[in-house]
Every structure is written in C-alpha cells, then in structure tokens.
Amino acid sequence: MPRLVTLTTDFGAGSAYAAAVKGALLAVNPEAALVDLSHHIPPQDLHYTAFFLRACVPYFPPATLHVVVVDPGVGSERAILYVELAEQQLLVPDNGCWTALVEAMGPPRRVLRLTESRFWRPQVSNTFHGRDIFAPVAGHLSRDIDPALLGVPTDTWVNLALPQPHISEIVLEGEVIFIDDFGNLLTNIPAGAFQRFQERGMRVWVGGAEIAWWVRTYAEAVPGTAVALISSSDTLEIAVCQGHAARHFQACVKTSVRVELAG
Amino acid sequence: MPRLVTLTTDFGAGSAYAAAVKGALLAVNPEAALVDLSHHIPPQDLHYTAFFLRACVPYFPPATLHVVVVDPGVGSERAILYVELAEQQLLVPDNGCWTALVEAMGPPRRVLRLTESRFWRPQVSNTFHGRDIFAPVAGHLSRDIDPALLGVPTDTWVNLALPQPHISEIVLEGEVIFIDDFGNLLTNIPAGAFQRFQERGMRVWVGGAEIAWWVRTYAEAVPGTAVALISSSDTLEIAVCQGHAARHFQACVKTSVRVELAG
Amino acid sequence: MPRLVTLTTDFGAGSAYAAAVKGALLAVNPEAALVDLSHHIPPQDLHYTAFFLRACVPYFPPATLHVVVVDPGVGSERAILYVELAEQQLLVPDNGCWTALVEAMGPPRRVLRLTESRFWRPQVSNTFHGRDIFAPVAGHLSRDIDPALLGVPTDTWVNLALPQPHISEIVLEGEVIFIDDFGNLLTNIPAGAFQRFQERGMRVWVGGAEIAWWVRTYAEAVPGTAVALISSSDTLEIAVCQGHAARHFQACVKTSVRVELAG
C-alpha cells in the first residue's frame, strides 16, 4: 500500500515552491500518495498552523506522514524534527507549530533532530529547506526507512504557547483564534465550560456586541441572526446564519469573547 | 485498482475543513484515490454548484464517486443522498445541487437516503457532516460496500430550478449563469438555437451593449474585441479576446443576454 | 507503478475547467497519478509559466509527464507539442512556455506535433483543447502508448525570449522576473555574477532604492530589514525579513535591479 504523505505550507496557492517540494519528494519515492492539506497558511503564522493541524491531523489513518513547512527560521540554526505522535508521523521545523497536537493526541512517542545530510538533496539552499531537506527526507520515510537513521533523539523542543481562556464559576473569558472561510468565529472557550453556563442561563459577548441566541446548528436560526453554538472542534463558535460573522462584528483573531452567568 | 473519489466543497482554499474531510475519508480507506475538484464553490451557492458539476462530472470514468459538500442545511432534517447516475456515483446533500446533471446524463438509476449511522463517525457534530458523515460513508463506498446497506431507497428529492432561456422564432432571451476565471460570460442559451440565428443573421446584446462579432474561437478576434462564440459547454458565450468580458461589460451572474434575428 | 502526470494551468483555483481536464484524463487512464502543480498561472502569462516550470520541473523523477495548459492561442493553428527533455515528458502548446527549461535541462531529445485525432475526444471544442486534446493524449501517454503514434516529428517550434540581464565587469543590470507569495523579488541576475561583485564590495538598487545589506538567509537579518541574497533558483533575490519586499519597494515584475562595484 502506498504511504500517505500530507503537505501543509505557507507557500501560497499554486506556488512554484509547493510544486518543487512535490517534485523533490516524488523523486525519492514516486509511489508516495501525496495529499494537499493547505498551501494557504498565512505566511509564517505559527498560531494559525497550530490550529490548522489540530483541526485535521487527528482524523488521518495511522502511519500517515504529515510534512509541515511553515518556517520563518529557514536557514538559521533551528532544527528540523521528526515526531511520532499517537500512530502518526510529522516532519516539522522546531518552532512549536505542532505542539498543540499533544493536548489532543498525547505526548510524542519519539522525537528526532535531523542530522544526516546524506538523506537530503546534495545541494541545500539557504532559503528553501522545504525542497532540499523536508521533501527528500519525507520521500525516504514514505519508503519505510528506519527513522533512527535520520538523526539523533532529543527530549527538548520549542513549545508554542497558545492563548488560554480564563475560566471561573461565573465568567468565561477567551478570544477568537480562527476565522473560517464562511466568516465563522472559532474561539478558545471549550464546549464543556460553555455548556455548563448555557444550562444555567448566560449572556455572550463578542467584542462589545451581545449575541442573543444560541443554537445547536446553523439551520436552526433565522438567516441573518448572530448565534453562539458548539463548533466542530468542540469549542464555542460565533456565526451569523447564512451570513459572515467576522464582517458582521468586525471581528478578527484576538477579538475578545466573554460568557457570563445570567442574573 | 484504487477507487477514484472526487471532492467538491465550499470550504475555501486550504481550509482545515477540507483537510479534515480527507483525513476522515482516508481513515476508512487509505487507498482511495482522492481528486480535488474544487474547494472554491462560493459559500452555499447551489446554482454555482449545479453549473460546476454539469461542466465536469460527465467527463469522469465509470465508477467514480463524487462527494459534494455544499450544504447550507447542515444539521437540519435535510437528507444526505447516495445517487447512481449513468455509470457514476454521487454523495450529496438533498438540496438539488446535483439535479441539473439529469439533463446531460439521464435520470438516476438509484437514489438512497442515508440512514445507517454505523457507517458514520461515532460522534456526529451538528455543523460538520462533511467530516462526520460524508467522509466515512465515501470511504466505505470506495471499498465497494453494497450501497444498499447505507440507507433506504427514495423516489423523492429536492429539485433545483435553474433559470431557463426564453426561445422563440425571432428572439433568444437568456442570462449569464457563470463567469469563469478569464472573465468569460457563460449563458444559458443553447448552442443549437444560437447557431440557427447566426446562420440567418443576428444581433447580440449583453445588458445594454451590443456585441458586433461572432467567432469560432478566441484566437480569431483582434485582442480587445468583444465576441460571441459557442462555449465548451455548448452554450452561447461572450468573451473579450485577451481581455476580461465581465469587467468590460460590468456583467455578473443574472445579467440579461439577448439574441435577435437581424433585419 | 502508476505514472505521474502533473497539471499546470491558468484556469484559476477550483475552476470547473481544471476539474473537467482531470475527468477527461482519468477517463482514459483511471490509474494515472495526478499531481496539481498550479492552476493559478496568471491568465495567458507565458513568461510566468516559463519561470514556474523552471522552478519545479527539474526536481521531478524520470518519466514524469507534465501537462501545461496556458494557451492563449487555443483553437487557432498553433500546434500542440509532445516533448522529451532530459528524462521527462511535456505536453504543451507551441507557444514557447517550455523553452526556458532547455537552459537547465539541455536540448529536447524529441519533439512531436500532435496530429492523430483518434487519440483526442471525439468532439473537439474550439475553446477547450485542455479537456478535448491535452487530457486524453496525456491519459494515453500515461498508459505507455508509443509517443510516435501521436503525431509527426518536428525540429521547429516557438522559442520564448526571456529578458536577459546585462552583465559587465563593473555593473549588473537586470529586472524582477517573479514575485513569490511572501513578496520576495526574484531577479534574472545569476548568482555567480552577483557573488563575484559581492566579494569585492558592491551596491545594490531596486528601482531607485538602495539595499544596504546582503545575507545568506532570511533569518540572519533584523525583521523589517531589506536584504539581497541568493534565491533557491540561484539568482539574486531581494527580500524584506519577515516583511513583504514587493509592497515595501512598490516593485513589480520588470522593475529594474542594478548591482555596481563599490568605490
């Protein structure tokens, strides 16, 4: 069975860089089954990458290799890591883009720093490790090379601190952490906390604007209504039914979101 | 031979939602051969989806499974349908997005409403049936499960009414139904009717502007000239040679198009 | 082993045209391994296509077939070519989009003009040869048909003249030929010439603005600094560290770039 290899980059749609990564990977293993996840990560945005990976990596089958090239430190001394997490594998820059996965999938079973340049392209450019290191190493991994050959074990790496919600008995304070293509606002307030408030009566604000309704699903609300609901990532989400919540509330990533017990 | 499974969604380019659908599908069948058709359907636009599918589905080989997640009714009581049409298979929300295919490919040979939740993800969210129902069911179908296990036969479904042209002996009245990335205007006036007029001499208007030339192909016209021609979908098309007809005519979907017998 | 077939078009992201090309290709060979390179080539931009192909085609494994549909002359008398270049294969309109590859990969070993319509779709539209000729021919080639059956050998074709830098002992004059999604400016000044100047002391201008620093890699500079460096395509590149050089310098393709020996 060909090995699944996913690609996540900030190279931009239809970028020649993404195309070159595919070429250099397939040059090592023409039978790798490539799956584009995204080449639209906002340039060098590690928080976005963290959210993105958490929203999709856990759904893939065991033994999938996820190659992530969002790499503001390319060419510097930052390491490149091979990570085994649950049953999956990652090839990532050591910049913390992957560490939010640990919450959902448990601690890594193995982390290596790549050191063995014999698995890289013969000439490594200073600005394009995606093509010259990530791609050929991914090609070798997808051919079931023993990962131990690639580098040295490590137990230290960069952890990315994500914004944490403030949760008390009477108030939940969080923020927008992601805006999807429909304009829906995904927050960092966990579904469980929200549901406890919702059962007892609550009020919800985005920035300074109050949300009057909560629903189970978009289709329950009158078109144009702003609603709170549980997102598919199990967090509080703010949407405008058949509308665009981000424009409606002039909200962006980091806009504050607040839930209070009513009365 | 691995089974071809195409994906058409309105999730947006590089969306984590499209990535999660791929993961959940491959989790059921890691050997499915995924083909991205589009993740750029304008949000919840069923008319666009209808045109899109009609322009590409008929060209695929037999036994291709087309998964379409353009689903404003997600989480409501709308059904999800499995459809066999000519030699192809569809997995679609019951919102009419697929019914324009019947004109080109004949009536469906079989339509089922999905009911058997044992083929879905164990937890089904209220807002993301693409990941939790469509994807795993597509995975099972691509492993050649008997479709009859998935649900119950039905002979009623939502039909989408597309705008119809008015065709008489002396005038053809239609409208722009699609604008491609080159800015060309595709109309709902069939090639056959247009050609009968063209043989006898005609005048063509888009909105209030008259088109002076008709051609067989873009390359026949002087750059910058507005022309009428037969589109690759066998309908009347308005183009500006090496230019952008939509901007030139300030035209959009629903702009009227009129053909009159001359003299 | 399934044959790799890459797709490069100017149809636009998520275009129904790209989807139809995939369908018509897979209809001939459902086992072809499709790889999307780009559907975002700016409409009909042959210079961009030339740069794009040079940045990725050389990295692919032998026996990859590259299908390129950037075709302003569709429907005219322009030929469609099958080309063998180094160990790779191309299917291209005869408009010069591929000839810049010769510099990097050597002269073509074989060039044919497609003439045998029995390998095309039965009905060939005047505006969509991508679907009606390129796709089915690519399907047949990926099934290892003898290419000689497709057409007739030719030793003449359109060559695309790319802007050449002016190189002397004391000055290098070139221009921006590509802007990537990070806003970095890629020029046509070769790395070798630049490095000779750099060793002896130099000054660098983009348009009227001087670049004060040169670096080995993005990460060496202070964020916000404009720098000159060697690109991953082995040419002079102008970047703004963690910024957007194109916006910073209001530069576009064709903006002049000048390197002078200092003192």
Description:
With 263 residues, the first copy, chain A, is α+β, with helices and mostly antiparallel strands. In chain A, 22% of the residues lie in helices and 31% in strands. Chain A is elongated, with a radius of gyration of 21 Å. The A-B interface holds A 1-2, 4, 6, 8, 13, 35-41, 51-52, 55-61, 64, 178, 180-182, 216-220, 229-232, 237, 242 and B 10-17, 19-20, 22-24, 26-27, 30-31, 34, 36, 43-44, 72-76, 78, 125-128, 131-132.
Beta-strand fraction estimate of chain A: 25-35%
C-alpha Rg of chain A, in Å? 21 Å
Termini separation of chain A? 60 Å
User: Poorly predicted ranges of chain A (pLDDT <50, ≥5 residues)?
Assistant: none
Q: Helix-strand pattern of chain A, N to C?
A: EHEHEEEHEHEEEEHEEEEEHE
Query: How many E-type strands of chain A?
Result: 16
Largest sheet of chain A: 9 strands, mixed
Keywords summarizing the entry:
alpha+beta
Brief overview:
Three copies of one chain form a homotrimer. Chain A has 263 residues and is an alpha+beta fold.
What is the fold's blueprint, element by element?
3 copies of one chain form a homotrimer.
Chain A: E1 4-9, H1 16-28, E2 33-38, H2 46-56, E3 65-69, E4 80-85, E5 88-93, H3 101-105, E6 110-114, H4 129-142, E7 151-153, E8 166-167, E9 171-179, E10 185-190, H5 191-200, E11 202-206, E12 209-211, E13 213-214, E14 226-230, E15 235-240, H6 245-249, E16 256-261
Parallel strand pairs in A: 1-2, 1-3, 3-5, 13-14
Antiparallel strand pairs in A: 4-5, 4-6, 6-7, 8-9, 9-10, 9-16, 10-15, 11-12, 11-16, 14-15
